[in-house]
Amino acid sequence: MAQHYRLDFVLLPQGWAPDALVTVAEDGRISAIDAGGGAGGTGGPQEVERVSGFVVPGMPNAHSHAFQRGMTGNTEYRLSARDSFWTWRQAMYGLANRIEPEDLEVLATQLFIEMLKSGYTSVAEFHYLHRRPGGDHYPDGLGLWDAIIAAAAASGIGLTLLPTLYQTGDFGGAPLKPSQARFASDTDWFLRAVEARIGAERSAAPAALRTGAAFHSLRAVPLETLREAALALRRIDPALPLHIHVAEQIQEVDSCLRQTGRRPLELLLETGLLDEHWCLVHATHATAAELQGISAAKATVCLSITTEANLGDGFFEAARFLKLGGRLCVGSDSQATVCPAEELRWLEYQQRLRKKRRAVLADKRDPHQAAGRSPTVMSTVVATPPRRRRSDTFRPTRSPLSKSSRSSADSTACPSNSTMVSPKRLGRACPSLRRPARRGPPRAHTEPAWPRPPRTAGAARAPRLDATATGCPGRTRRDPRRCPSC
């Protein structure tokens, strides 16, 4: 049965619309939006739920490695004076070679629930775990792919699965290291597996699942192999989304120059493959000419600002790229932070630090776009099918949500709250923003744990104040120090 929501304010392509009626079909998809506030074709009186406050579309998470959620926080200490992306990568390999399908499903389910709570409503999972730790295939061949799909179904998030081609250890066709054996994928096997997935999706009922494809990087996929595979994938599905890591690290760019005489983005642009269905992840060290080429090809650049900052990648020229008409999206990548508001905030702040001025990414059309904090609480409708409401109860770890603030149909920008709330109710509904209630009598003064320095001989003691002298309602003759306000 369809559900109907009356929204105080909703952000639509044409701008803010008041008193809009939204209809959600049985499969969890929004089937109609009546910005005029009328019946919206419902065919008569219907039960309509009122949603107070401001509602914005859910954010897509355009780049995610779910298994890396298992190492969040475990690499935040210094091993040497030259810690970098490359030393972090060794720790990541250690985790990647311990993950089994059952572990991955639990990690990904927890992560996807966190994404929904923070405002992401769909995710593109850049997935390069294919084999057993030793390099052999699983009996069913695709156990790790199935773990991601099961996690998305359990949590209710929309999923674009991006099986990733990975064949070499570096530019020039260097062989894979033992720590990379799980990532290996033969081109023919890869194409058959992707085609089988797409065929199964076409014959099944519509669902919040789509299969795309990815190339790990030009370090991991030789250029000719990439060209061959990309053309074959286009024959399978002309609109197939294709993603690739590119130009994330200076060392990567320098290595490509030594081996080929060209920069990674130069090589990609020269293939003529890039179009609106390509997403270039990071592109941190793109030149002005390369940014112009990406914009002309209508490809999208995905930035993961919190991950790029965490790994010390560098600054992307976002202001220049947007002026060229480029398209940007964001993702949580290594899960250093799972919050679209943080990604967007630090996208702007990164440019401010680089250019030493404010409101860099704003323009006359959207002068508020660069604001560091929204002036009002905005909610996001996440319409999920009834069969996926297990996210209400399935929590691999203890959730901070109270029973009164749990909902599978929506979320706010606050990572601790998944309830659509108005600004007036936010403090009562969100445990992380609510001021804790004071319990018991006012706390009495206690001496510090460390010893006080000895009083100088002959020093006068300060006189003890009396309630009648200070006029403070919290002081009493009985215990002049017992004052919660002072």
Question: How are the SSEs placed, and which strands pair?
Answer:
Elements (H helix, E strand, L loop, with lengths): L2 E10 L2 E10 L5 E5 L13 E9 L2 E6 L20 H12 L4 H18 L1 E8 L15 H13 L2 E8 L21 H17 L5 E3 L1 E3 L7 H14 L5 E5 L3 H11 L3 H8 L6 E5 L5 H10 L2 E4 L1 H7 L6 H6 L3 E4 L9 H16 L22 E4 L28 E3 L10 H7 L37 H4 L16
Parallel strand pairs: 1-4, 4-14, 5-6, 6-7, 7-8, 7-9, 9-10, 10-11, 11-12, 12-13
Antiparallel strand pairs: 1-2, 2-3, 14-15
Helix pairs in contact: 2-3, 4-5
Give a nutshell description of this structure.
With 486 residues, the protein is α/β, with parallel strands linked by helices.
Characteristic key phrases:
TIM Barrel; 2 domains; nine-stranded parallel beta sheet; six-stranded mixed beta sheet; 29% helix; 18% strand
The helix content, as a percent range, equals: 25-40%
Figure out the total of helices: 13
Largest sheet: 9 strands, parallel
Q: Domains counted in the coordinates: how many? A: 2
* Strand fraction: 15-25%
Say how many strands there are: 15
Question: What is the annotated CATH architecture of the largest domain?
Answer: Alpha-Beta Barrel
Write down the CATH class of the largest domain.
Answer: Alpha Beta
